[in-house]
Amino acid sequence: MKLRRIVLLAFVACLFSNVSLAVTYDQVLAKIHEPQTDTVAVQKSSKQKVKAPEKDVKSLTRLLEEFTQDRDDPNPDYLWFDHRIGFAGLLNAEMQDKTKPNFMNPRSDKISVGQTKLNIAAKANDWVRGQIGLFYSTRADYYYPTASTNTNIDMEEAYLDVSNLKEYPFYFRAGKQFIPFGKYHRYPIIRTLPQQLSEAQAVAAQLGFVDNSGFYGALYIFNGVANNTNRNADDLNNYGAAIGYENLYHALGVNVGMGYLNNMADVGAIRNNLSVRYYTWRVNGLSAHVDMLSGPFDFAVRYVTALRGFSPVDFQYQDGRGMHNAKPSATSVAAGYRFQTMERDSKILVSYQRSRDAYNTNASVNALKLPETRMSAGYGINILKNTIVAFEYDRDHDYSGRNGGTGSYSNAATLRLTMLI
To answer: How far is residue 356 CA from its own chain's centroid?
Structure first.
């Protein structure tokens, strides 16, 4: 209860701290949006023009995109019907080799459509815009619940935005969306361990702000998974809050933030993991991130954890004490360096990831079994206009036999070609 009050009070305090600073991020933006090895490498310039010199709307739009998990989502150009309708998309084609999928299956080599995304957006006026996003992948692991081999087109998002950042720092979003719990790239080659414990979609209502002072935050509410004792319930039973601060004005830029989710049963990978599609008792979740940027170097830390143990029916963990309630968590530390390859924007990235209590030993068909550790390295280059080539190598280590795992290693090498539409 104390945690909820602290998060709520901090959000309210920042909500009314509408401080404006006459500083632009243009030079920093040119560095931030160079190729990422784990996501789409594209600089998403805002379609809004900055008319008031005291407000950097372009930077506020970029910050809002990061906060609402939209930073690698294709950004439509409003070129149709008197500049009111816009389209944008991406296509990721991948060739991947895995030595031991799921630590048990034989070696796998395949070519797949990693992700295909088409966004259609419309502006009613300066305050109201809507967007729908159609998603397709031949990789079943990119669907929640996990798709069969017959994957299909998914309505990944359909929401309405009410905002005018040129006038006010507040925004309202309603509809199917990714909620601001954790911070991640939506379309990486392989999801990081913290992302798998935080990524969540919901038909939600979200009220938030992004301010020139660097503060940002949001409150949101949605219909979540029903309790096992009241399976027919249809009410707004899940909610959360997030708050953060960004300062990119100095030689060392920083972005720090944290999020609270009332029930982690609605995180996609955990929801898919539930044996009966209902939760037994509520488990609160906490996420935190720290980003630092200095010249061509960047450094990122992600952390997410359950604040109490799950019911063994939903998520159980095995160790020397036997079977008990799992309290899963995950951490990642990543460092990147941006440079030119034959005058093309490029980046290398290395990361180390670790999970705890994240190997579910209950009888669920889709029981979540994350690797205990992962080491990853990647390279990406903007090889042509709207065309990115990226390579990523991941080495996963499974939980030991005493935890129900195999204790073995699995290596994955992936080559991705991205086309931006």
So the answer is: 20
